[in-house]
Amino acid sequence: MKILYLETSSKNCSVAVSDNEKLLCVCEEVSENYKQSESLHTYVEWALEGAGISLKDIEAVSLGKGPGSYTGLRIGAASAKGFCYGLKVPFIAVNSLESMIEPFLDQNYEFIVPLIDARRMEVYTAVYDGSTGKEISATEAKILDETSFEEFRDKKVVFVGDGARKAKDILNLPDADFREDIYPSSQYLIKKTLEKIENKEFEDMAYFEPFYLKDFHGVKKKGS
Fold first, then answer.
1. Residue 194 neighbours by CB under 8 Å, 6+ apart
2. pTM of the predicted model, to two decimals?
3. In angstroms, how far is the first alpha carbon of the chain from the final one?
4. Domain ranges of the chain
5. Of the candidates 101, 154, 149, which has an alpha carbon nearest to the alpha carbon of residue 123?
6. What CATH superfamily is the domain 97-179?
7. What does the pLDDT look like over 3-29, one tens digit per residue?
8. What is the pLDDT of residues 144-160, one digit of tens each?
């Protein structure tokens, strides 16, 4: 089964194609100015070309549904719906935090904690078992302070994501590992997507909304 994956919830604009569990191609780039609107469809073209297939060969589309950038999520969701509608294929959505933990599973960590920067001292986060990847603590928006994640003081834990940068400075966890260079990536949506297809957990395109986690607040320009 040929599947197209889109992940636009962060600074990493990421597109992948798989044949069932086999990754055929991934195209992605981390950009400080959130280039999803400019790059996404170009990356889709490149990923399909790299996989040696055409768009009409795609049999399902999977989206990293957030949490993350409001604008990035809107762009990804609109594109995924468009592809599914045009191709008449199923639509799958996966929590973007889950795509951040896979490289760290079975690496001798008891817990893996993704941290997506949500501005100021806030992060989007959840807690996963370091061996099984099972969700231990549900996704939430959390304001960091020196007492955050104290329950992991004597545990082998890794914090991953661009929110790990500020977490490292404030958390009182000297034995924890921090990997701030990790972003949600389409290539790590494969396993969870196949599970959802197996269980027929498809999204309703008419009613699907990305996982924003909190309301969007625009910034008003000052009057001239």
1. 20, 21
2. 0.93
3. 56
4. 2-96+184-199, 97-179
5. 149
6. ATPase, nucleotide binding domain (3.30.420.40)
7. 999 999 999 999 999 999 999 999 999
8. 999 999 999 999 999 99
Q: Are 8 and 14 in contact (CB under 8 A)?
A: yes
Whole-number Å distance between alpha carbons of 175 and 154: 8
**Which amino acid appears at position 20 of this protein?**
N
CATH of span 2-96+184-199: 3.30.420.40
Q: CA–CA separation, 146 vs 166, rounded Å? A: 11
Confidence of residue 37 (pLDDT cuts 50, 70, 90): confident
Strand order in the sheet with 12-19: 22-30, 12-19, 2-7, 60-64, 91-94
Sign for the pseudo-dihedral over CA of 67, 69, 18, 27: negative
Query: Residue 109: what residue type?
Result: Y
